[in-house]
Amino acid sequence: MMSAIDRLAISGLVLLLMAICLLNLNGVGVMLLGINQLFSPLLLLSAFALAIIGFQQNVTLSRALLFYLMSLVAYLVIGGIAVLFTDNTLTSSVPGLLFRYSTGLLITLAGYYAVSCCYSVKIEPLKWLLIFAFVASFFIPFGHVLNVSGQIVVDNQRGAGLFGNPNEAGIIAAIGLAVTLVYVRQKSTALLLSTFFIVMAILTFSKAVLFMVFVIFMLNQLFKGRLSTSFVRLLILFLTVSLLLVIFRADIIALFDGTQAQRIEQFLNILAFVPETESVKSSRGDLWLLGLNEIANSPVIGNGLGALHSMQGATAAVNGGHAQGVHNSYLLKFGDAGIVAFVLFLAFVCYVFYQSFALAKKDLHARFSFFYFFIFSLDCMVTHNVELLRFHNFLLGLSLGFLCMAQRKQRLGLV
Question: What is the pTM of this model?
Answer without folding.
Answer: 0.90
